[in-house]
Amino acid sequence: MKTLAPCTLMIFGANGNLSRLKLIPALFRLEQANVLPEKMVILSAGLEERSRDEWVGEVEGIIKAKYPKGYDKATFEKFKTRHQYHATPIGDAESYNRLKVLLDEDANYPTDVVFYMAVRPSEFPVIIDALGNVGLLKQTAGTRRVVIEKPFGYDLLSAQSLQKSLYKHLNEPQIFRIDHYVGKGTVQNVMVFRFANMLLEPLWNRHYIDHVQITHSENLGVGGRADYYEGSGALRDMIQSHLMQLLALVAMEPPVSLAAEHLRDEKVKVLKTIRPISQSAVHAHAFRGQYASGTIDGKPVPGYLEETGVASDSTTETYAAMKVFIDNWRWSGVPFYLRTGKRMAENASAIMIRFKNPPQDLLRATRHEPPRPNWIMLGIQPDDCLKMEIQVKIPGLELQTRTISLDATYRKEGEDEYDAYEGLLLDAMEGDHSLFLRFDEVEWSWRVVDPILKVWAMERDFINTYSAGSWGPRGTYRLFDREDQFWRHSLNVKGGDLEAY
Ligand code: BG6
Fold it and tell me: Domain Glucose-6-phosphate dehydrogenase C-terminal spans what residues (predicted)?
């Protein structure tokens, strides 16, 4: 691991959910791993006035909440010395002048600064304008980088206008558009799996692969995030960003190298070759649903419309599925199915690749059921695993077959598990863009989903529902091309390899 240069990390929205649940705990883990630069300041910004001591007390509360069984006190003593607090109350333009004086003149603050926007999307341009107007984004004394959370825009046009407003004060190398999915170790494993093994490359194309499924499902409902989610919905929240990134990693050509631009060039190429979905084809390519009340872990849970902050006639989708085709030599004719949902039966993210059947079914006479295809499955969470299903002969006198799973669970006991944010924070401090999105990636992803968003926005009087705790609305099966294709829910062989409801 490289030694990082001293830097100031300023978190806007330090008191918000993202910062409390992800960023501050991730920084603490980096402290534990002893990889933060000796001279590094974490400057938290929030709307309320607070003394430094009060803020350090809150940080301790955040760490205690994260590690209820106890945390490493010695590490915390060191961690707390890094924390400072700066209030930026709404309408107080002076607070940015004070910030400028602090960062420019106080020798305790390293001059390389990373500004992390852990705020509502509408605040991104406002804060960046304020920083730019006082000259804090000029790279005279040190580097100035900005990390921008998703969603980057609301649709193609708004993403383009957000981009324009950033370019008033920043150039591209200063911008780090984060998609925390790309930072997950298991997602990076997709690349390792594909490009560090020779075994797969000959099979990784339309000649052998029948279709690909990419799923992210969650038990949780919308929780306290209705004000954001009502304006977003599942397609924007998960598919336009995280699942499109997974698709790009599965489908891209081998890059020239793992350097940021080479990697991002290949991802963009895939996104560009996704066949545009015309508005009249939206119903054949996309399906949405909303959770109704149901049962999760044996407990009754309310439907989306009963959640606090949700309009009683809302047609915001909490489930979205879509089918896309990648019109290039490798993938022509292979459907990629993407789906995501809240309040689903399980928490599970996985990439499932189904292979074609052998050209001749020599074993037909020995079976009473349709042939079972091979699957390769990459579990992303909660099980990070790699499984491959193949057919073998059942021991005995008769020639009968069964499916077995080659299970290459690759985590060894004692190996550290990091959340995505640890690595991404280090990369931003180091200036490595490989795991951050370039604007053209964001733009092309919006192009894919924009027609669907437009049609759904017009259809406001009806949405399919599904019971909380189920696998989503039944009608979603109509996306599949053939009758022998189904959503695959489980990574395990369970009687049948393809599961119906
Ligand atoms: C976020 C979405 O980007 O990703 C959430 O806004 C979603 O709605 C979350 O729950 C899923 O991320 P993870 O890392 O918990 O799978």
Answer: 191-488
Can you give the pTM of this predicted structure?
0.94
> Residue 483: its pLDDT value, please?
87
Residue 404 to residue 493: CA distance in whole angstroms: 7
- Tell whether 272 is in a known binding site: no
Q: Give pLDDT, residue 384.
A: 86
Name the residue with tokens 């599970």: 348
Q: Which residue, by CA, sits nearest to atom 15 of ligand 1?
A: 218
C-beta 218 within 6 A of ligand 1: yes
Is 184 assigned a ligand-binding role in the annotation? yes
d(CA 233, CA 317): 5
Structural domain spans, the chain: 8-149, 182-479
Q: Whose CA is nearest to atom 6 of ligand 1?
A: 237
Q: How far is the CA of 216 from the centre of ligand 1 (A)?
A: 9
182-479 under CATH 3.30.360.10, yes or no: yes
User: Which pLDDT tens digit goes with each residue over 346-392?
Assistant: 999 999 999 999 999 998 888 777 889 999 999 999 988 899 999 99
Q: Is the CB of 419 under 6 A from ligand 1?
A: no
Q: What is the predicted pLDDT for the residue at 496?
A: 46
Structural tokens at position 380? 């992303």
C-alpha of residue 179 to centroid of ligand 1, in Å: 10
pLDDT for 414 equals: 74
Q: What is the pLDDT of residue 427?
A: 96
Q: Which CATH architecture has domain 8-149?
A: 3-Layer(aba) Sandwich (3.40)
Those residues of the chain that have pLDDT short of 70 are 1-2, 494-501
Per-residue three-class SS string for 387-418: EEEEEEECCCCCCCEEEEEEECCCCCCCCCCC
Cβ of 237 less than 6 Å from ligand 1? yes
User: Letter for the amino acid at 417?
Assistant: E
Q: How many Å lie between the centroid of ligand 1 and the Cα of residue 448?
A: 20
| Main-chain dihedrals φ then ψ at residue 244, nearest 5 degrees | -65, -35
Q: Whose CA is nearest to atom 10 of ligand 1?
A: 218
What are 418-444's pLDDT values in tens digits?
Answer: 889 999 999 999 999 999 999 999 999
